[in-house]
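It is worth pausing here to work through a concrete case rather than discussing structure prediction in the abstract. The textbook approach is simple: state the sequence, then state the predicted structure, then interpret. We follow exactly that order.
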Amino acid sequence: MENLKEYFRRKFIEGYEGYEIVITLLALIKDGKITEDDILPIMNYVYMGNVTGVYNALNKARTLVDDKLIDDIIEEVEKNN
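Step two, the predicted structure:
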């Protein structure tokens, strides 16, 4: 999990939006790579303990995501592998 934390923090610093990271994490959950319990520790690390930032990212992702989107992401990843 430490590798994921570092990876997503690096992506965040490079300009990825927090909600994009949350959506990716949700796809990883659906694919069985991580559990729901992993999201908060990863996001806390990405946001360096900024609870407001984590909350905002989670809320924005919630407004954008549905199960079909996650399924589409997983399908696209599987096609490219």
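Step three, interpretation. The two ends are 22 Å apart (CA to CA). The first helix runs from residue 2 to 13.
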